[in-house]
Amino acid sequence: MTALGRILQVIGWLWIAVGFFGPAVNLPDVSVFPGIIILFISRVLRKQGGQATRDEDGTELGAEQPDEPRMLNTERPQRPAPEPKPTPKTPPIPVTVPELRPRPELKPRPELKAQPEAIEEERGELLERVLLASQEVAEESQEPQYPKLATEREDGPLTSAEMIARAHRRWDRKP
């Protein structure tokens, strides 16, 4: 069976090679798929032929039986159990638990007596500062920060020729 599998494997590889490289050397057009199927069949035959020469326990027929069973990579050797440690001869030290003391009572926090008029005055001063700062920012933002470029058009978008000319002016090396 294994010999037939090897022959079919060679035929399958040749078929695939002719399918790929045949048109390049003016051979008739051959499909690659039958070659792939022949390869799979050859693999099956070679596997079956290899199993027929093995015994039920996985050893080959005619081979000498080993004295020890073969260890698989997934099995781990059993290690002897560690010896128990001897018990200490000294008596254990007695552990004393400290007595729990009652928690002292928490005193309530004294409340801050804020004067409402002082808070209102401070709030008013802060509000005036914020309003003055916002007015200054508003006045500054009314002025245009950047002057409008002379090349920008207001009537619509630029044409592609205008954009290319602008890019050349901007990015070309200057003498």
Task: Please explain how this structure is put together.
By secondary structure, the protein is mainly alpha-helical. The chain has a domain of 51 residues. 45% of the residues lie in helices and 0% in strands. Helix 1 packs antiparallel against helix 2. It starts with a helix and ends with a helix. The model has no long low-confidence stretch (mean pLDDT 78).
Write the layout of secondary structure elements.
Layout: H1 2-21, H2 33-52, H3 116-142, H4 160-171
Helix pairs in contact: 1-2
Give the number of DSSP strands: 0
Q: What's the tally of helices?
A: 4
- β-strand percent reads under 5%
As a whole number of angstroms, the C-alpha radius of gyration is 47 Å
Largest sheet: none
Mean residue pLDDT: 78
Note the gap between the termini. 84 Å
Helix content: 40-55%
Name the poorly predicted regions.
none
Order of helices and strands: HHHH
| Overall 3D shape | flat
Report the structural category.
mainly alpha
What is this entry, summarized?
By secondary structure, the protein is mostly helical.
